[in-house]
Amino acid sequence: MEYHIEEMISKEKIEARVCELAKQINEDYEGKELHLVIILKGSMFFACELSKRITVPVTMDFISVSSYGDGMVSAGDITVKKELDEDITGKEVLIVEDIVDSGRTLYHLKKLLLARSPKSLRIVTLLDKPERRMSDVQTDYCGFEIPDKFVVGYGLDYAQRYRNLSYIGVVIQD
Ligand code: IMP
Ligand code: MG
Fold this sequence. Notes:
Blueprint: E1 3-9, H1 11-28, E2 34-40, H2 44-52, E3 58-68, E4 74-82, E5 92-100, H3 104-114, E6 120-128, E7 141-145, E8 151-152, E9 168-173
Parallel strand pairs: 2-3, 2-5, 5-6, 6-7
Antiparallel strand pairs: 1-9, 3-4, 8-9
Helix pairs in contact: 1-2
Magnesium ion binds at residues 39, 42-43, 97-98.
């Protein structure tokens, strides 16, 4: 497939929005300790930029789940490829996601994590494609709602490429 990438959200816009999200999170978790559950690999850039701006005490752990292969169509269920290192029981957990598409990943992940009795469980996502939602999952903090387009950059990949772009771009078929 011949394609090119067009900028959808600039580096500056992302930075400004990440600051706003951090501010909101700092207010909501004031006096509390926050435990970030970062979903690899796509959320890593967002998690770095967001966590640098969080002022309440914060700890981090990583989980890797798969719902996508190397293509652009979502698979049915999720598989845990890398488990969390730490127990989340009694913690104020905030899942950090790059993008919510069908919602299946977060639906299953939320169920899995809730069974481990965290004190609270919320979700922050950089991007949301609400038109594509198939599973009933709500996010607590969202950077940008975007149309139903396949995007790359800022951690997001197409066949493992383009994660390192500093902006969000759309993959356009030529
Ligand atoms: P969901 O389970 O369908 O909500 O899919 C969520 C996961 O699919 C995200 O965490 C991404 O890793 C991946 N994904 C969904 N849409 C895109 C996209 O437009 N670009 C890159 N990855 C995507
Ligand atoms: Mg992801």
